[in-house]
Amino acid sequence: MNLFLNVNFSLPLINPVIIFSLVLFIILFAPILLKKIKVPHIIGLILAGAIVGPYGLNLLSRDSSIVLFGTVGLLYIMFLAGLEIDISEFRKNRFKIIFFRLTTFLLPLTFGTLASFYVLGYSMPSSILLASMFSTHTLVSYPIASKYGVVRNRSVAVTVGGTMITDILALLILVIVAGMAKGEVSSAFWVKLGLSTIIFTGIIFFIFPIIIRWFFKHYEDSVSQYIFVLAIVFLASFLAEAAGLEAIIGAFLSGFVLNTFIPHSSPLMNRINFVGNALFIPFFLIGVGMLVNFNILFHGWGALRVAGVIVAIAISTKYFAAWITQKTFKLLPEEGKMIFGLSTSHAAATLAIILVGYNIIIGETSDGAPIRLLDEDILNGTILLILVSCAISSFVVEKASSRLAAIEEKKNEETRGDDGRILISLSHPEMVAEMIDFGTAMKPAKSNTSLYALTVVSDDNNDESSITRGRKMIDSAMNHAAATEQKIIPLTRHDMNIGSAINYSIKENNITDVLIGLYKSANHQEFFRFIANNILNKSREAIYVYKNVQPFNTLKRMLVAITPAAELEQGFQHWLLRIFTIAKAGGMSLHFFANEDALSEIKNSISQSGDFILPTYSHFSNWEDFLILSREVKQNDFFVVVSSRRNHLSYNENLEKLPYYLSKYFAQNSFIMIYPGQIPEESLMDKKSKPEHTILKTFADNLQIVNKAGGYFTRIFKKRKK
User: Fold this and answer.
1) Is there a single domain that holds both residue 675 and residue 690?
2) Looking at the structure, do residues 73 and 115 belong to the same domain, yes or no?
3) Using an 8 Å Cβ cutoff, are 313 and 112 in contact?
4) 177, 658, 682, 713: which is deepest, by most CB within 10 A?
5) What is the pTM of this model?
6) pLDDT band, residue 230 (cuts 50/70/90)
7) How far apart, in whole angstroms, are the C-alpha atoms of residue 640 and residue 644?
8) Could you tell me the CA-to-CA distances from 213 to 179, 220, 276, 617 in Å, in that order?
């Protein structure tokens, strides 16, 4: 009985251990209990916060610790929104985003001002400030979309893109109206705001990438990287506030900048999502719930009238903005619901605007009571709006996300089929992590591509060190893959020759792509000679020889040099898709060096795929002058060379010099040599002397290649006639 005498159980609780324990149990059990009645976990956490908060059971007060964790949670949501944006999808939907920005801001602002002025009877400054609150939205339900894996859907991109702008414009109105009420708005005010904004954006988009790239190059420790990312997020948030903007703008932009440095299938990305969803974001939602005061329903008709108008205008205008956007761009009904669901929730910016307006005193009544720019009825109505809008948002996003996930899954099953199988050859323990990461980058998102990790053990019963070494590499590969939530199929072969082990593994597992690591200190010429004699001559699958000089996520550009006639090879489209996937995973821009025929095929592939890829191109066909490319390849570039096997359509004698060139002139660059999947050598012979009818017979099973080859020979004969 005396055990608990030293513990203070007075309400609200003040013991930090008890407070933290209670919050953790709420985070754990609230979603579990409410899931049984099909209530989204987000609204469950908000309701739990309302129950234990100062207006409920008063178990917890909304003290500095709750505010701190809640602020971190809000910034975390905005950071994740920027981090998980598909940049290509963002660019592709830029017109939709601009349109939605205008509608979701102007409709609530216009109708909200009119309703506040004519229906509620507030002054014009108060009406405009109140209406600006209607225009904002907080991505409270974003974690639901993330849970269903639909954050890269165009509807999410449109809503997220609109969030930042609407909040900026609303907060700008707040600054103007508040400044006018205080008499602080002048020309100097606008100059100061403009200069601070320019400096802020310059730091974010020009200085931050330099710092981030340097850090990731020099520090690969997972804990250090995570702490660094958090530091960048909160530094950006602070700089935004210092510039006169809102912290959420800085958090979003930091995520947008870090987007290209943190691959979405990386262990770091998983850690970011895990910590945010497990701790920071639930804290924010509970803090929002603690603001809910159910007593406002009993404060009389005036409070209910104001609350009713606020809720009706805020939700209806957001619905119409989403509906107009959906109809204008012919989006799916589920996408329209997703836009409405994500944009209808009001929390952070909404509360910030109202509290600022509530704290501005513009006069006194005859009895000395303060006259506020936004009165207590508006404050109470806003609290009710937060609860109602978050509830509607959660239910709508939950339903829309599940439906969109099902549609995308069905579409993927119909279009993707079997995306191939990638074999990752592990030979050096120091390269295991980077080989798994690169193999994962080759795999399209949500594809059926299987990843195999192969270690070759010396076929010597007495070589225990080789067995132990191979086992450690497999264990390391499995652990690293688990951190990225990737499934790796381990393979171990006992063989005296690595080449034969790889070839047997290719045949037994129907491998389509083989990734082989080139160790930094290895002799390039001997290594490629081994590859040619032991693998290339005995296989027809795509072979990728990868040399890593710096972390994959620190690379800026991918430069691709393509040998002439590569577009005629059977595996052209296959390796091209892999290149697009790798560039997208690494956030790299693409530049191709090739002849006109290959460039034309690449452009055609991009137009047919519908993917929003904007590479740049340079005509290059003189492989005798290959070293001219050394002027183009910079330190942070990823150099890709598309080579060929002997006696195939795209082979030329200059390819024999590539190992020497790469080792001597590109030693400071990460690169990959690609040998495309090709038809068997015996079916080709000498392309220049073989009659056309033989070619037609040889390629009878592949009409596309026949047509391309026919055009190639036509050009050759024309040149000879000249």
Assistant:
1) no
2) yes
3) yes
4) 177
5) 0.75
6) very high
7) 13
8) 40, 12, 23, 26
